[in-house]
Fold this protein.
Amino acid sequence: MTPLWQAVDLPALPGRSLLWIDDLRHLSPEYLARYFRPQAQGISPRVLARALRGAAPEVAEHVLGHAAPELTTAVREHGAEDVDRAQIRQAQLTVATVYFWEMAYHGRPEVYEQFSARQQPPLAELFPVTGVHDRTVLDVGTGGGRVLAHLDGHAARLYGVDPCRPLLAIAATKVPGAVLHEGGFDRLPLPDCSVDLVVSHGAYQVSEERGGTSGLAEVRRVLRPGGTARIAVANPSTAQHLRSTGVTEIAVRGAIEWTAPPADADPLLHHLLRLAHVHFDEQGRGRTPVWLFEIVRPA
Ligand SMILES: C[S@@+](CC[C@H](N)C(=O)[O-])C[C@H]1O[C@@H](n2cnc3c(N)ncnc32)[C@H](O)[C@@H]1O
């Protein structure tokens, strides 16, 4: 195979060994085709080109072999530019930061499940099972199927959508009766007016690739007239964004309760807990807020 460009060999980066640019290898061809487009997540083709210059050649081939063709073309053009190691490092930091959680979901789903198991959202308050009887429910960004498992046995039909196939495989074991699809807020794989209740926990984000205005439009599209969506977010800036769209906010009394992992747990698990800003007390308990938003499609 002809090399894309002259790769730059960089020494290992101390303290950055948990997930770094080569872990883009875990993103599936489908994920790359769908989400790796020019300027997606604010990343320019030049920055991606610089980041990939210092990646393992097979990782660069994997990304560029499956990304949207217009991104691949632009990245290859930037690949001829002169860059120094500091610029490559900076670009890698940008890309690895933006895709850190995705690399964890896709590459280390078992650690992400351990992270989930440490977290207890107030599901009964966010998504009460009363009222879902005889209803068709869709969980967007279902991950390992935690919310579906909570609603299992109450709703008539359960659908789960997530772009991460390894997490969907975990959801399938927890909720075998649910219909699971690869997909996301940007393009929900369900017909117009087909769902009574859309739920989502911790998945909606501001960017159009992970939610945004088009994601809310997609949620409204799949809702039946009279249907409701309940979107729970755990990030204050995402909550602020949803408020600014005029979506109705519902006060939440509860919070996400956390239990600390053993000290010798996987270092990635400890790191994910730090990224989620979880602080544990002496009893190994933590508490973080969650915000809830509701969309009702008029009957
Ligand atoms: C923090 S996890 C939450 C998972 C699950 N809802 C839970 O509460 O355990 C975020 C989930 O959003 C998914 N996700 C990422 N991009 C998405 C998109 N564009 N649309 C929908 N879900 C997305 C991820 O794959 C991941 O499973």
